[in-house]
From TrEMBL:
Keywords: ATP-binding, Cytochrome c-type biogenesis, Membrane, Nucleotide-binding, Translocase, Transport. This is Heme ABC exporter ATP-binding protein CcmA. Signal peptide: none annotated. SMART domains: AAA. It comes from the Bacteria. It holds the Pfam family ABC_tran.
């Protein structure tokens, strides 16, 4: 695996005319997992999207404040709340669309699909798949990316108990191989050494 790690500082987020958070920072070394927690609507997904580079890092509240930043060591893979798989395509084709963009390792993805129990669904249109099957497919896509850093936004949503255990196992394997992982979730994780970051109500 490539080298991993992340350092983020002074992250601020404004949605519409409302500040969600300001001055948030975090740092992860290879092998570390961070659990991002906080109430509904507090800004966990927004923070994940900033970390993934999909939302800008806003400048701080004060006049002329410098924006914060995010520095990754190695590539980043995001398991978003939405699976981003074309509903009109058979699953295999929908995953292949991303393979070219992600630089997917086909063997890694195929092995993950097998473990996740979706290898037999590649000819089924994505629109016929259940929520959990789509989540499993998104997880197989992530593993195929072989990114050293993972961002998992509510990875357990829609998964049955067995699949939740499997995803936990996959996270363990990833970090034990030297990766990092940030998980935004209301669920509990049984992962040793979990670092906890709680986003709190932000008041001006
Ligand atoms: N595109 C957008 N434009 C304006 N406001 C938005 C947008 N996306 C999200 N928000 C608002 O930002 C706030 C934070 O949303 P976010 O999804 O980051 O919260 P969360 O902590 O992940 O919530 P949950 O636990 O319910 O998933 C919410 O009030 C939401 O309505």
């Amino acid at each position: 695996m490539q080298a991993s790690g992340v350092k983020a500082w002074d992250l601020c987020c404004r949605r519409g005319d409302r500040w969600l958070f300001a001055g948030v920072g975090l740092e992860l070394a290879p092998g570390e997992v961070l659990h991002l927690v906080g109430a509904n609507g507090i800004g966990k997904s927004s923070l994940m999207r900033i970390l993934a580079g999909l939302l800008p890092v806003s400048a701080g509240l004060e006049e002329g404040a410098k924006p914060g930043g995010v520095a990754w060591t190695g590539g980043v893979g995001l398991l978003d709340e939405r699976p981003a798989l074309d509903p009109a395509q058979p699953l295999g084709r929908a995953l292949d669309f991303w393979a070219a963009i992600d630089g997917t390792d086909p063997d890694l993805r195929a092995h993950a699909a097998q473990r996740l129990g979706i290898a037999g669904l590649m000819d089924v249109p994505v629109r016929y798949l259940s929520t959990g099957q789509k989540k499993r497919a998104a997880m197989a896509r992530l593993i195929g990316q072989a990114a050293p850093n993972w961002l998992l936004d509510e990875p357990f949503n829609g998964l049955d108990q067995q699949a939740c255990g499997l995803v936990e196992e996959m996270v363990m394997e990833h970090v034990m191989a030297g990766g990092t992982c940030i998980i935004a979730s209301h669920q509990h994780f049984h992962l040793p050494g979990l670092i906890r970051l709680e986003l709190e109500e932000f008041a001006l």
